[in-house]
Amino acid sequence: MEHLVSSWCNDRSLPESYILPPEDRPGMLPLGKNIPVVDLGAHGQTDILQQILEASQEFGMFQVINHGVPSNLIDEAMGVFKEFHALSAEDKAIETSKDPDKSCYMYTSSHNYATEKFHFWRDGLLHHCNPLEKYIQFWPEKPPKYREVVAIYTAELRKVGFRILEFIAQGLGLNPDHFSSELGENQILLVNHYPPCPDPSLTLGLCKHRDPVVINILLQSDVYGLQVFKDEEWIGVEPIPYAFVVTLGALIQIISNGKLKGAEHRVVTNSNLARTTASFSLNPFYETLIEPAKALVDASNPALCKSFSYKDFIIKYRADASYGTAFE
Ligand SMILES: O=C(O)CCC(=O)C(=O)O
Ligand SMILES: [Fe+2]
């Protein structure tokens, strides 16, 4: 494992390898712009569907409130995520190297640390979640409540994810359960940690990317940092207590045959506050074929791409990534 940012960042100035070219540094944001907030507890399924569809088409990203996940569970989950990242580098290495097949691991910056042109100011803990019986034995056992809390948390998020995908499928005119089997059952949790940064104006926590997933349900902490790119502008995503940020991934773009787009987004850092976030993504199994949904393809809407396996997609995604940098 490369040296985690959190293990050396205290009292150091920003190393040159983290300094981005001027055009890619975070600048000023337009005032007063926000992404849509959808109330999943509202009456009227048709209204909710309509709001999700519009937000998906316009931004590829929206926040959800009243999603049914209890706030004390969210607090407990964020608590164990922060505690995990506060462990010593040695403990983190031990806690994430239990599976020889690497279903649980840590990395820093991106998956291409060794070859990327610039580094980014984040550490990530990634592990598979489903089926739970297969993977939980490889999850961290420190902090002691990690497994218990995260098992309940990820089961809840799975429900939220599939509920939103049902709305999206219906909005596209597909069967509501289009995503509910192979396309979403490979669930991955990525716990990001961005330590306080000596100069947030020169670097990023994550550079502009689309998630290589079907859909991502993000728990932000109360520290701001996420931005989405829309109409050639960056828009800040305001942290709302207990809300989730839903991001459409690159795979939905393919499955919807271009009707929906994966949102491009990035993360800025903060000079005095650490930020911890958790991305829970719904993905296909590695051998599953990804292709435009047949119901969305006809003579006037030809398929925009051929079918390929999720595994091939990930290999290509990592190879093509901007700056030689790939995020998951
Ligand atoms: O930490 C965030 O706000 C976003 C993280 C992200 O973009 C990702 O995990 O793909
Ligand atoms: Fe992302």
Q: Can you describe this structure?
A:
- There is one protein chain.
- The chain is α+β, with helices and mostly antiparallel strands and 328 residues long.
- The chain contains eight helices and 14 strands.
- The strands form three sheets. It has an eight-stranded mixed β-sheet. A four-stranded antiparallel β-sheet has the order 6-11-8-9, with no helix packed on it. Strands 13-14 form a two-stranded antiparallel sheet.
- Strand 8 and strand 9 (233-236) form a beta hairpin.
- The longest helix is centred in the middle third of the chain and has 26 residues, at 146-171.
- 42% of the residues are buried.
- The chain binds 2-oxoglutaric acid and fe (ii) ion.
- Residues 209, 211, 265, 327 line the site of fe (ii) ion.
- Fe (ii) ion is lined by residues 209, 211, 265, 327.
Provide keyphrases for this structure:
328 residues, alpha+beta, eight-stranded mixed β-sheet, four-stranded antiparallel β-sheet, 8 helices, 14 strands, 20% strand, binds 2-oxoglutaric acid, binds fe (ii) ion, DIOX_N, iron, metal ion binding
